[in-house]
Amino acid sequence: MNHPTLSTAVLTFTFCFAFAGALDTVAALEPGAGNPHVTNDLDASRKAFIEDFNRITLNSTPGDAAMLRILVESSGAKRGVEVGTATGYGAIVMGIAFERTGGKLISVDIDPKMVQTARENLEKVGLSNVVTVVEGDALEVLPRLEGQFDFVYIDAVKSDYLKYFQALEPKLVPGTVIVADNVIKSGKHMADFLEVINGSPNYISNTIRSDETKQDGMLVIYKLK
Predict the structure, then answer these.
(1) Domain holding 172: CATH number?
(2) May I ask which residue range the UniProt record assigns to the signal sequence (predicted)?
(3) Fewest C-beta atoms under 10 Å: which of 88, 101, 112, 118?
(4) Which long-range contacts (CB under 8 A, 24 or more apart) does 112-117 make?
């Protein structure tokens, strides 16, 4: 099966809403979808925390985080892995989606300070029971993860994308959604990963740009079988 290359597969999503609007769109779905104990996933304090989050360069952009949440929740994902936590902005937004699906997210980062900050931020928004932040080198942590997964977000060392993917692939069920960040600006650093995805009959993929501020894109991959 031939898959689109980066030069032809850039599908630009022109989201004209701000981040809060994007989250409110998803929140407009039936409250607590997939989890009867969740009645208001964006209460005033949680929403304010996300909007006022002191994001750093390593964090996901608001538009990308909103798209990740939409992908998690719309796919009904139950067990996810994030490679590259930073201070937890993306993990918080995805965590809201996993809370609504009744799922869990494991986020991995090698930097002890980032891990500590992310854990503190998750605690502040009441998501510590949904998102587990693991400290360590992802190339060592990922092979040791047990069980199966149905959502993956990769945003760490670009030249190691293929290694991250290979460590997780045996654990991925059909229907898994895999998202790889920075595939436009850093495409040359992950050429081996892109070649494997584009050349495999087991996956279909497309590059989307959900946040114009960074002039980059995410590759969204669907595991067919």
Answers:
(1) 3.40.50.150
(2) 1-20
(3) 112
(4) 114/58, 114/85, 114/86, 114/87, 115/85, 117/87, 117/88
